[in-house]
Specification:
It contains four helices and no strands. With 108 residues, the chain is mainly alpha-helical.
């Protein structure tokens, strides 16, 4: 059976979507939500772009490479922002986002 060319990236995207959604939800429950605004915003952005990229890959979009490059930038930004916060959910999200950004860069 032939392996999909982006199979590893798709798995990384799914992990990133999950981590960002968990972080987003947990940030909304933090005591100082205003302080978490940038993290929350980037969690949403990152989960959305990862989800869109996964769909674009599976439907063989002609813009896959451009979307992968954009996804790498957004995952990196989300990971960098999450890294600024000491909460466990933010640190875990940062790890996953930064790994996804690397997976994107390797895929192109």
């Amino acid at each position: 059976m032939k392996k999909q060319p982006y199979a590893e990236l798709i798995e990384s995207l799914k992990e990133c979507i999950d981590a960002c959604n968990r972080c987003f939800d947990a940030c909304l429950n933090e005591e100082n939500v205003k302080m978490m605004a940038d993290c929350i915003r980037l969690d949403r952005e990152c989960a959305d772009v990862c989800s869109f990229l996964e769909q674009a890959i599976t439907r063989h979009s002609p813009f896959v490479e451009e979307l992968i490059n954009l996804c790498a930038v957004i995952c990196q930004a989300c990971g960098d922002e999450c890294r600024k916060h000491t909460h466990d959910h933010c640190q875990k999200c940062a790890d996953v986002c930064l790994m996804c950004a690397d997976a994107c860069r390797k895929a192109v």
